[in-house]
Amino acid sequence: MTGRFISFEGIDGAGKSTQIASIAAWFQARGDEVALTREPGGTPLAEDLRALVLNRPMDSLTELLLMFAARRDHLQTLILPALAAGKTVLCDRFTDSSFAYQGGGRGLPLRMLDPLADWVQDGTEPELTFWFDLPPAMAAARRAGAREADRIEAQQLDFFERARGGFAARAEKAPQRVVRIDASVAPDAVWAQVQAVLQQRYPA
């Protein structure tokens, strides 16, 4: 892996998309070739699986397996080739979201998630993860009216409380990789936190 692999996490409504665009511009200004992608999705097959996961009724284990199937194709088809080419890969969600949403939110045990992560990723992990953290009630207020909710966004507040706890557990487990960003403040203040991390991790 010769490129950089950075992921972005947080419950829906945390404002990841705005910050990812700014981060992409920051790396491009330094001369990096940037690959912007997302999960579930990023490849034709993974996007098809995304549509199923977000719109079709299914049980929690089926949801988990489809997420990891999409991730495997995403890794093999896009992420690993981009890293081998020396690109900076910026990924909106990765495996932390599975642990937070299907693990924390849905309540699936780690004994299901850990082996899937090992098999599917085969050692590939982001070198840096930004976790945009904010209270679920605030996230819900931001999401309201923004767009029609998909099957996961339509979950009750307690689901997102558990998902937030899942992200917190992942951050505690990997403190060198996962950096918490207070996403409850104004976008400019969020960007100031992000930029400070970028300048520390990737000095000119």
From TrEMBL:
Keywords: ATP-binding, Kinase, Nucleotide biosynthesis, Nucleotide-binding, Transferase
Alphabetical list of InterPro entries matching this protein: P-loop_NTPase, Thymidylate_kin-like_dom, Thymidylate_kin_CS, Thymidylate_kinase
Family: Belongs to the thymidylate kinase family.
GO molecular function: dTMP kinase activity
NCBIfam families referenced in this protein's UniProt entry, alphabetically: DTMP_kinase
Residue span, Thymidylate kinase-like domain: 8-190
Catalytic activity: dTMP + ATP = dTDP + ADP
Biological source species: Roseateles asaccharophilus
Protein's recorded name: Thymidylate kinase
Lineage: Bacteria, Pseudomonadati, Pseudomonadota, Betaproteobacteria, Burkholderiales
Function summary: Phosphorylation of dTMP to form dTDP in both de novo and salvage pathways of dTTP synthesis.
Name of a matching Pfam family: Thymidylate_kin
